Amino acid sequence: MNFLKICRAALLLLLVTPATSSAQTVWNNKQCAVVLTYDDAIDVDLDNVVPALDSVKLRGTFYLIGSSGVVARRLPEWRRAAQRGHELGNHALMHPCDGSLPGRGFVTPDNDLSKYTVTRAVSEIKANNTLLAAIDGKTARTFAYPCGDLQIGGVRFYDQLQNDFVGARGVTGGLQTAAQIDLTNIDAYSINGQSAEYMLDLVKKAQQSHTLLVFLFHGVGGGHALNVDLQAHRQLLRYLKAHEKDIWVAPMVEVAEKVKAYQQRNPSTPR
């Protein structure tokens, strides 16, 4: 009887271990991956976020709008942030959003994605890549859709950019395994006023499910209409640092590269 129990346990281990091992391998041999992303190239990124991340030796992804005055005015600081391992991601040159959608009264005629051609959108995003490469000297990076808008006239413009990026971040919340991730529209939780407890609960769920968790921030301690409390953000960083043996915290480009490699090794895995 004991022999049969041992055999069953061994068989169960063989069945379970590969999946668990695979999940942990893609997350750098940890339980899960967490990516901290910050949109729009605003002053608080450099004033509040970069110092907070550096203080606990964590790295994030900053999605820069090429036309932002904060990029031009503080370019040496962005360069130093990149040198310390933060990713400077592409958030388009002009941050165009689809003004034809409900609630888009803030969209100006000049930056209305619904009035763009696909060629114009692609050209501006490529131009922003050139600018970012001039700042950080890097060729591998990720893209973030302005306002989460994927299409122009029913055409997904990112289809013409897949060779220019490792992946693209969207705005739909969700925890996903490496097999489930769509690298053309990576899920992310938008944070606007949620508590530290809410964010920590998401991290713990990612740990339990061995999934990728992406946070999408704008203002941190002010600076934007979409904002997270500075202390709540600090609590999140402290938890991630205290559990770094179990949680892989890395810029989006590094996580996306791992996911891409995993999916190429497992092409039959449904997504």
UniProtKB/TrEMBL annotation:
Keywords: Signal. One of its GO terms (biological process) is carbohydrate metabolic process. Residues 32-250 form the NodB homology domain. CDD domains: CE4_GLA_like_6s. InterPro entries: Glyco_hydro/deAcase_b/a-brl, NODB_dom, Polysacch_Deacetylase. Gene3D superfamilies: Glycoside hydrolase/deacetylase. Pfam families: Polysacc_deac_1. It comes from the Bacteria. Residues 1-23 form the signal peptide. One of its GO terms (molecular function) is hydrolase activity, acting on carbon-nitrogen (but not peptide) bonds. This is Polysaccharide deacetylase family protein. It comes from Hymenobacter telluris.
